[in-house]
Design a protein that fits this description.
The complex is a heterodimer of chains A (455) and B (231). Helix content of chain A is 52%, strand content 14%. Chain A is built from 17 helices and 10 strands. In chain A, strand 2 (99-111) and strand 3 (120-127) form a beta hairpin. Chain A is elongated. Chain A starts with a helix and ends with a helix. Chain B is an alpha/beta fold and 231 residues long. Chain B is globular, with a radius of gyration of 18 Å. Chain B has a single domain (32-56, 75-230), classed as 3-Layer(aba) Sandwich (Rossmann fold). In chain B, helix 3 runs parallel beside helix 5 (144-157). The chains are: A alpha+beta (455), B alpha/beta (231). The A-B interface holds A 3-4, 6-7, 10, 13-14, 349-350, 353-363, 448-450, 453-455 and B 45, 49, 52, 54-55, 74-75, 77-79, 81-83, 87, 89-91, 93, 95, 97-98, 106-107, 109-111, 154, 158, 166. Chain B: GO terms for molecular function: ATP binding.
């Protein structure tokens, strides 16, 4: 094999300009393909891939009859009263679910008593205790709060906030200040794998929660509602006030701000979804007698998978670029075939000499395969380097597009190639290059040697 | 060693059929030195290509060491070419990017000979052609005659049963041609069968036996006839 490699290397070096052209041509195609492939691959990933079918986002559409949802990510969150009804039904076991959690997006400034760190302007979520287990939030330190602590002065920090406030040390048991109130840190989570902020179905890839506070504490202390909060026309004028100050009014208003997630059993998914659907239908029908739920679609139940599929459909431009990258790669393969054929013409004499000296057709194919693999390897390595540069440029562009307000680590994750993806892509590219190269390789092995060796 | 019975070769295009060889019968014994002469287009090169298993034929039988080559696969034919036949071309056909050592090594690699044995054979064959000290030189650094000697060394390194030389001195000046011919004769004296195609009747006279190809037909001719032709 070493000798065959040596001979193939000699062949590879012949007509070096054509060889270089072939490699440059492949590098361009591979770079673009890997860059766009990575972006699409990373965007399509979910930190909750094992729960895509069992996590269901629930919505009771209290909005006006003419409300236009536009797309599945603009599904109205629950009003306070509907969330209460759902929670009561769950507690009363009227619906069988593995778990049910609520959250709303809020923001606050986190400070330290001793001012040892700069105050942190954080967006976070108000959640109930079941949220953490349901979302598999990975705890670096501590744990979630208990079921009887949904109104306690406690907080779970994300790693980014913990790094900022406590220099990454274990902050469990320490205190932070929010609105002049002390909250004890009970846990630190690392959401770096969560490239999308899916809990409030914004699927933002710019930033994620910096902290989590208990739902009842947040409502009791009037932590603002900063996420998507649609209101019925009759309450629309009150919306700014309901967002910021009037939590009492919010509890009776027709404004949705609570995201409800149900986790159904993986063994009994459909039956539990059906049961949940039935409850939502009955509830909205019962409420319609009170003049509510006039919309033609009174409720929505959407799996996390469906929401991810929706996100994928939104990536029109990325998919156009990916298809363009596929097309360009196909063109580079055609070019490669052409360049290999041109190389064959130039070295027909060498192949003929090899045949005269005793190389059989299979050996010629083997030499050419090794030679092609050499070229493909160099092209793939350079393509991978090119893709890393391409991804970095795309990351910078993405940050620029969002006026640098995104969390760099989270945004960069979408533009980072992981080794397994790179390996799979490299193997696929090897395979396609080899397939494309078969025709010129077989053609080279069929050169009639006698005609080339005269003179 | 080599037996051809009624060999015919036809080149076909859409419009015309060319009978390059017609009913060739030839027997070559071990250790012979045969010169093949004939005018341009008479079929000399086709004859040499068929003898060297580089071309197939339409009719007849070709026995190489008793083995009917028409029945053999490409792999088997390649093996025979590698082990039993040494080629010497008019244009030398050395690989410009390889030094002399590597050039001679190529057929030995195809045979799967180990590195140590290859080294021994390459050094021996280079010594035999008088280029033992130039193993690391590249073909472009040598004269035409030296390049042809390298080609001979490459053919000899495989210890072939016979050498096929196609106008081996065609690209050389008189002095170099004489040196190369003397080398070939010496190789033949040491027992290697030699079949040489040449236009040069003077060179052909050095062979033990002369055959002439005319319009695809092969016939033995006497040396005196060659002289007459030369005159």
């Amino acid at each position: 094999m070493k000798d065959a490699f040596h001979l193939a290397w000699q062949g590879f070096r012949q007509k070096s300009k054509l060889t270089a052209l072939m490699i440059v041509n492949l590098v361009i195609g591979i770079t673009l393909l890997l860059t766009m492939g990575t972006i699409i691959d990373q965007s399509g990933r979910s930190a909750m891939s094992h729960k895509l079918d069992v996590l269901q986002h629930l919505s009771l559409n209290f909005m006006d009859a003419e409300f236009d949802r536009r797309h599945p990510l603009r599904t109205p969150p629950l009003t306070y009263r509907d969330a209460q009804a759902l929670s009561d039904a769950y507690e009363a076991k009227e619906i069988s679910l593995q778990s049910l959690s609520f959250n709303y997006t809020t923001s606050f400034v986190i400070d330290l008593d001793d001012s040892s760190a700069r105050p942190l302007d954080a967006t976070g979520s108000a959640v109930n205790h079941r949220f953490f287990e349901m979302m598999n939030t990975p705890f670096l330190f501590g744990n979630a709060w208990n079921s009887n602590m949904d109104d306690a002065n406690v907080i779970v920090l994300d790693k980014k906030a913990n790094d900022h406030l406590f220099a990454g040390t274990n902050s469990v048991g320490k205190f932070v200040m929010i609105n002049n109130q002390q909250l004890e840190v009970v846990g630190v989570v690392d959401l770096s794998q969560h490239t999308h902020r899916f809990q409030n179905i914004s699927f933002s890839n710019r930033n994620n929660d910096m902290a989590f506070v208990p739902m009842d504490y947040a409502l009791a202390n009037n932590l603002p509602r900063v996420g998507y909060m649609p209101c019925m026309t009759k309450d629309e004028a009150l919306r700014p006030e309901l967002r910021q100050t009037n939590v009492t009014g919010l509890k009776s208003a027709e404004c949705g701000f609570l995201h409800a997630w149900a986790q159904v059993s993986p063994d009994n998914t459909q039956a539990q979804v059906d049961e949940l659907t039935l409850w939502m239908r009955n509830y909205t029908q019962q409420q319609s007698t009170l003049g509510r739920f006039t919309h033609s679609e009174p409720y929505y139940i959407q799996s996390l998978k469906l929401l991810h599929d929706t996100i994928y459909r939104f990536m029109d431009w990325e998919r156009v670029y990916l298809n363009f990258a596929y097309l360009l790669f196909a063109i580079t393969l055609v070019n490669t075939v052409g360049i290999l054929l041109a190389k064959n013409q130039h070295r027909a004499k060498l192949v003929s000499l090899y045949r005269a000296l005793g190389a059989n057709r299979l050996y010629i194919v083997k030499l050419q395969m090794i030679e092609l693999l050499l070229g493909a390897t160099i092209a793939i390595i350079l393509g991978l380097i090119g893709a890393q540069i391409g991804l970095y440029v795309m990351y910078l562009l993405a940050m620029y597009q969002m006026d640098y307000v995104g969390v760099a680590e989270q945004v960069q994750r979408l533009y980072s190639m992981d080794m397994w993806f790179a390996f799979k892509a490299a193997m696929a590219i090897y395979f396609t290059i080899l397939i494309a190269g078969l025709f010129p390789i077989i053609a080279a092995s069929r050169i009639a040697p006698a005609s080339q060796l005269r003179g | 060693m080599l037996q051809m019975n009624n060999i015919s070769k036809i080149y076909r295009t859409d419009l015309v059929e060319t009978h390059a060889l017609s009913g060739v019968n030839l027997s070559v014994e071990e250790g012979e030195f045969i010169a093949v002469t004939g005018p341009s287009g008479s079929g000399k090169t086709t004859f040499l290509n068929i003898t060297g298993l580089l071309e197939t034929f339409e009719e007849g039988q070709y026995l190489l060491d008793g083995e009917d080559v028409s029945q053999l696969t490409d792999k088997h034919l390649s093996k025979l070419r590698n082990e039993k036949i040494g080629f010497i071309f008019q244009g030398f056909n050395l690989i410009a990017d390889l030094n002399l050592y590597d050039n001679i090594e190529v057929p030995l690699i195809f045979r799967g000979i180990n590195r140590q044995e290859r080294k021994k054979r390459i050094e021996e064959s280079l010594e035999l052609v008088g280029l033992g000290s130039r193993a690391s030189h590249f073909p472009a650094q040598l004269s035409g005659g030296q390049q042809q000697r390298v080609a001979i060394a490459r053919a000899l390194a495989g210890k072939p049963r016979f050498l096929l030389a196609d106008e081996p001195t065609g690209n050389l000046d008189t002095m170099m041609a004489r040196q190369v011919m003397e080398l070939l004769q010496e190789i033949n004296r040491q027992g290697t069968t030699l079949i040489m195609v040449t236009h040069d009747n003077e060179l052909a006279q050095r062979a033990h036996r002369n055959i002439q190809i005319l319009d695809g037909q092969v016939s033995d001719i006497a040396k005196s006839q060659l002289t007459d032709l030369a005159v």
